[in-house]
Write a structure and sequence with these properties.
Radius of gyration: 17 Å
Number of domains: 1
Structural class: alpha/beta
Helix content: 40-55%
CATH superfamily: Alanine racemase
Length: 235
């Protein structure tokens, strides 16, 4: 995709966020646009960066590491948004500022173990399977409280909030219900003393619904960089 197309797309996505926030009585500055850059080139990332984009999300560790090393001179905030593999936990803990996809005590403990002491605690979100899909990662609602309690005991992690990848629906009310379910769970944890401030939900197709329901991070790839060759519903 050309530089101008990426810039124009970013302008359009920002306008969508601003309009959605205004329509729901929110301040758009509360909402982080996370540009999903998996399978995209260094040049594409730099084009978005030069336009002011700072948060980038990657799904695959090896691909991400190459980008992180080549772009280390830039003030990019890297988010890991893919499935965590135990043998990649050290690389994730050492190179990312955020991890959105924690869904087990095992992975949380590995990230805590490998997070360098000279870096700030790793910002993490618990991934919740709000649509109860058998083939999708994430904890069930009834498992959430236990995992949150375990993470709270890990000094090298900061539990920032919850993340979900709801099943997409053409019906607005169904899509809205998934976002509301995540927000209700977050409110439950906050009510029990968890100092959380993040709802990572909303993608290219449904960011307006997510913003209206309280999303603080929207993960947008296709609407910025164009379609990927491999179909993936994660962002």
């Amino acid at each position: 995709m050309s530089e101008q197309n990426i810039v124009n797309n970013l302008k359009n996505v920002h306008k969508r966020i601003i309009d959605a926030a205004a329509n729901s009585g929110r301040n758009n500055r509360e909402i982080i646009l996370l540009a999903v850059s998996k399978a995209k080139s260094i040049d594409d990332i730099l084009t978005a960066y030069q336009f002011g984009q700072r948060h980038f999300g990657e799904n695959y560790v090896q691909e991400a590491l190459e980008k992180i090393y080549k772009l280390e001179q830039y003030a990019i905030i890297w988010h890991f948004i893919g499935r965590i593999q135990s043998n990649k936990a050290q690389a994730i803990a050492e190179n990312f500022a955020w991890v959105h996809t924690v869904d087990s005590v095992k992975h949380a403990k590995l990230l805590n173990q490998y997070r360098p002491k000279n870096l700030p605690p790793l910002n993490v979100c618990i991934q919740v399977n709000v649509s109860n899909e058998a083939n999708k990662a994430g904890v069930r609602a009834d498992e959430l409280m236990d995992l949150a309690g375990q993470i709270r005991q890990l000094p090298q992690l900061t539990l920032r909030g919850l993340m979900a990848i709801p099943k997409f629906s053409i019906y607005i009310e169904e899509q809205k219900a998934s976002v509301q379910a995540l927000r209700i769970l977050a409110d439950l944890l906050i009510g029990r003393g968890y100092n959380m401030d993040t709802l990572s939900i909303g993608m290219s197709k449904d960011l307006e619904i997510a913003v209206a329901e309280g999303a603080t991070i929207v993960r947008v790839g296709t609407a910025i960089f164009g379609k990927r060759e491999v179909n993936d519903d994660s962002k």
